[in-house]
Design goal:
about 40% helix; seven-stranded mixed β-sheet; binds (3R)-3-hydroxy-3-methyl-5-(phosphonooxy)pentanoic acid
Length: about 325
């Protein structure tokens, strides 16, 4: 093992969450300016130590929130015949955990990249996704795989469960505001609650999945035609269905409403919901700044701006 670093980025789901679990498409974007890195340094004394905001301690003792990540790390070490190799693994993250920005998938992605680099081994993308699915399954139950695909991607992705994600074009104009409610998202519970609703009352809830499906397809057309007002409208349509499916929250609703009043073309929750983050689409940076002020006033604990045109966002 050699000293090595792996990096990954935050992601947001532009549109399509929850319905994507049932085979419909979703559009997700990596946010390259919000980064996570995993730095691996070999130790001669055989100790396997992890240093991060999520967990600090030995690999052996890692449980709870870090158990899924520890599982993939143990399997990686076994794969490289280095199960007893000592190391310090330091994870530095600008991603808020449990906010629907792909923190767990980004952590796994950066670790897999660091370990492969530490053993001087090329890492095909499909192999990376296989490894990250080990921890994502342990953490989220039955994830669609969208988080892992996007936190390791270089460009926006059109994602359908079980298929290779396809890069998708974004307009030059358009600025997203991402705002954190400050409340941890509940992806696993939210996915389970949607499943329960679909089972008990399919006549009422199945049409909401179909509406999200239509909104995602219309959003793709809007992106291809640089039609930001249409994209905003489709984001609002998806939000109405997500709300009907019970995965919004009063805090998300407050930020979404504040963003729309401040001039956003559309606003919705992003990720699993029931907490976590919302996103708002604006025409330009001036409106984005107004939306940032409005959502901050409405209680957002953190905000980010991501221009479609730029590989750049600011906090
Ligand atoms: O909360 P996040 O960012 O992990 O996103 C979850 C997205 C869902 O569609 C709700 C679930 C999934 O596995 O795709």
């Amino acid at each position: 093992m050699e000293e090595a670093t792996g990096v990954s980025a935050a992601k947001i789901i532009l549109i399509g969450e929850h319905a994507v679990v049932y085979g419909t498409p979703a559009i997700a974007l990596p946010i390259p300016s919000i980064q996570l890195s995993a730095h691996l340094v070999p130790r001669a004394d055989g100790q396997q130590l992890i240093h991060s905001v999520f967990y600090t301690g030995t690999l052996e003792d890692a449980t709870d929130a870090f158990a899924g990540i520890a599982k993939v790390l143990r399997q990686l070490l076994t794969y490289f015949s280095a199960r007893t190799q000592g190391f310090d693994l330091t994870i530095d993250s600008a991603l808020p955990p449990e906010r629907g920005m792909g923190s767990s998938a980004a952590t796994a992605t950066a670790i897999v990249r660091a370990v492969y680099a530490a053993f001087n081994t090329p890492l095909p993308h499909a192999t990376l996704l296989n490894w990250t699915s080990v921890s994502e399954r342990a953490i989220h139950g039955a994830p669609s795989g969208l988080d892992a695909a996007t936190t390791s991607a270089q460009s926006p992705q059109w994602f359908v469960k079980g298929h290779t994600p396809q890069p998708i074009h974004l307009p030059q104009a358009g600025v997203l505001v991402i705002a954190d409610t400050g409340i941890p998202g509940q992806t696993k519970q939210a996915v389970a609650s949607v499943a329960a609703k679909l089972q008990t009352d399919p006549t009422r809830y199945r049409p909401e999945i179909d509406t999200i499906d239509q909104a995602v397809r219309a959003a793709a057309v809007a992106l291809a035609q640089n039609d930001l007002p249409l994209l905003g409208k489709e984001m609002n349509r998806a939000q109405a269905s997500l709300s009907e499916l019970g995965v919004s929250s009063p805090q998300l609703d407050r930020l979404i409403s504040a963003a729309r009043t401040a001039g956003a073309l559309g606003a919705k929750l992003t990720g699993g919901g029931q907490g976590g983050c919302m996103i708002a689409l604006t025409q330009d940076t001036e409106t984005a700044d107004k939306v940032v002020d409005a959502v901050t006033e409405a209680g957002a604990t953190a905000t980010w701006i991501h221009a479609f045109a730029a590989e750049d966002s600011r906090s």
